[in-house]
Amino acid sequence: MVAGMSSVRVRFAPSPTGMLHVGGARTALFNWLFARHHSGTFILRVEDTDQQRNTPEANEAIFSGLTWLGLDWDEGPNRGGSHGPYRQSERTGIYERYLAKLQDSGATYSDESGAIRFRCPNSPRRIADLICGDTHFEQRSEPDMTVRRADGSFIFHFVNVVDDIEMGVTHVIRGEDHLSNTPRHLDLYEAFRVEPPRFAHIPLILNENGSKMSKRDEGASVAEYRAAGYHPTGVLNYLALLGWSPKEDREIFPLEELVTRFSLEGITRGNAKFSLEKCGWISGQYFHGMDPEPLREVLLPFLATAGLETPADQLPDALLLELRTKIRTLSDAVPLLLPLLVDVFPVEAAAAAKLASQGDPSPLLRALATSFAEESSWQPAGLEAAIGRAAERLGLKKGALMFPCRVALTGQSGGFGLTLVLERLGRERSLERLGRFP
Ligand code: GLU
């Protein structure tokens, strides 16, 4: 079925007041998965009524973050739909209309400051939350809620409920921090005589030490993942597992499978613990399975941003097939590729120290250079044989030459297979590096 074929309508309703937080991205993802699973409609609604706190940058962070993750919306800004506009700042006429309804029913009054307040019925409320279960709010003693401030602006609870009614939202899936707001929202539904949607409040995200994850924590902002070159689908896969369990001991779930298997019942009641380490590991798994062509496509602009403008033929398939096994993020690729792409590269301090502890490497490197110089074809088999010959002449094991050779050629103790490095560098640069080291 295609989007919009069922009656399910859900929305992600961020306030553009800062970055797109991983908690927000996870809320968006759960809504998106729910919509896709039920062939419903996923709406993006920008809750930008707070003029003081909204910024264009925050607005942009929402769009670019969701787009980077691949969470496409069926209705929303830049997309349209039959229930627009999708920015609250453009919906004042609708709010006025709803306010008039409340005023006509006598549910509101103007207070001494000129604000319009809603008479809170304070009746006990029961929420049959699809995640938190039955939640009771007894003996409420909330003050009458301001719905429109004296300056004419509307408050969050009011516009949030009006929009959910007007947009035909069937399921409100949002962070647990909004659970305590829900009784007030139910008061408004009752006053409007509208059947409320189903509610599903997602538990919070905690740091590994159990503290509440905040904006300042590492890994809090979706933009950080993009800048560091995480695999976007890997990040989605990780976020899906952050609080949702497929009840199977497995970590990697392709997006289509998540769509098929996702259910609100699978969301765990307890708070989820965030692990950047696990997110990186999953991102790595996605890179490990990536074909050379799409990897090249994402890598080239990433390298360019890192100051390594690289022609596509410098990243042949053989190199990418090895590279993909070694990275968790595109950032990891930069130091690995650096010595293959440019002639000035750092030598790892630990590698240099280890080499120095083994005595003067010059005779070894000279012997290697001599053997390599005898190779006319510069093919893997011949290069292997050349290392063997150099070892024989020195009366050493072949393994004893690999490390000095690698450090001289790349400055690194790990990295790509040595023959791949030699092939990529070619005869001239390889011999030059062996000759000039250290
Ligand atoms: N704008 C609210 C927020 O950012 C949305 C609340 C809701 O999803 O109902 O938390």
Describe this entry's structure for a reader.
This protein has 438 residues and is mostly helical. The chain has 3 domains: 9-206, HUPs (Rossmann fold, 3-Layer(aba) Sandwich), CATH 3.40.50; 290-341; 349-436, Arc Repressor Mutant, subunit A. The protein contains 17 helices and 11 strands. The protein has helices at residues 22-37, 56-69, 92-104, 156-166, 182-192, 222-228, 232-241, 255-261, 276-288, 292-305, 317-323, 330-341, 349-357, 362-373, 380-394, 399-410, 418-436, and strands at 9-12, 41-44, 108-110, 116-118, 125-129, 133-137, 145-148, 171-175, 198-202, 205-206, 272-273. The chain has a 3-stranded antiparallel sheet with strand order 3-4-7. It has a two-stranded parallel ribbon with strand order 1-2. It has a two-stranded antiparallel ribbon with strand order 5-6. Strand 3 (108-110) and strand 4 (116-118) form a beta hairpin. Helix 14 crosses helix 15 (380-394) and helix 14 crosses helix 17. The longest helix has 19 residues, at 418-436. It is elongated. It starts with 8 loop residues before the first strand and ends with a helix. The structure holds glutamic acid (GLU). Glutamic acid binds at residues 13-15, 47, 160, 172, 174, 178.
